[in-house]
Structure of Sulfur carrier protein FdhD:
Amino acid sequence: MNQDIHYNQKIIRYEHGQLHETYDDYVTEFPLTIMINGEEFATVICSPTHLNELILGFLASEGVILKRQELKQIDIDESKGFVHVELTYNVHDRIQLSNKRLVASCCGKSREFYFQNDAAIAKTSMSKIQLHPEQVLTMMHRLQDESETFQATGGLHNAAISDGDAFYIHRQDIGRHNALDKLYGYCIENEISVRDKILIFSGRISSEILIKAAKIGVGMIISKSAPTTLAIQLANDLNITAIGFVRNQHFNIYSHAHRITHPKS
C-alpha cells in the first residue's frame, strides 16, 4: 500500500467577501507504531515516505541501535501502520519499553521522554569541515527549490544533508525531527560518514533540533529561521556551527564561526 504525502480536495474558501468552492492541497498525517522484538516502543506521527530511513534514524538517534549490525530485520506494514523491528540483542539490556510513547508531528510535550538519553547520545562534534559563504547560500537555495510539496501545502518541514559540494540528499516530513531522522537513516543504510556533513533545515533551530544534530554527529546546521538561546548555548558546548536567517544573500553565524572562511579576494 502506497500512501500519498498530500491530497487535493474540494474546500470552501472565503475571499473578497464571498464563499466559493475551490480545491486545496493538504499533507498526510500517518501514525506508525514501532514494535521492537514484539513489544510496542513508540508511535511516530509522520509523513508516509522513506519509512525505512525514518525507522533507522529514529532508532539510532534514540540509542536503540548503536550500529547498523544490531538491527536484524525491519518489516513495515503500511496498510496497518505498524513496523516490526527485530534486534540482535535483548533490548531490555539497554532501554525500557514499559511505557507507550507517542511522537507527535507537532514535536511538543509528547517528546519529553527523549531527554533521559540526550546527554548520553549527543556527540561533541569533531568535524573539520570548512565552507565558503556562497556554499551556505547555495545549499539553502537548493533546499527551497526542491521543496515543491511544501510550496503546494505549506504543511511540511524540509531538511537536507550535504558535504557542501557534491553530496546532497533532501527529505521532508510533517515532523521536523522525522525529516532529520530520515536523513540519518539514509546515511546509516548507505554507510555514509556524517562527521563532515552539514544539515540544512527549513525551521527554527531549537534546543531539540540542535540535540538531534548532535546525535546525528554533524558539525554544522544551517537554517532560514532563527535559533533559540538554549540552542546556541548547546551549539557552543557541543562544537557545532549554528547558522540562521539564511535568506537572499545574508546569514548569521551564532557559534564556532571558524568553519566559515572568508571569500578569497
Notes: Confidence is low (pLDDT under 50) at residues 107-116.
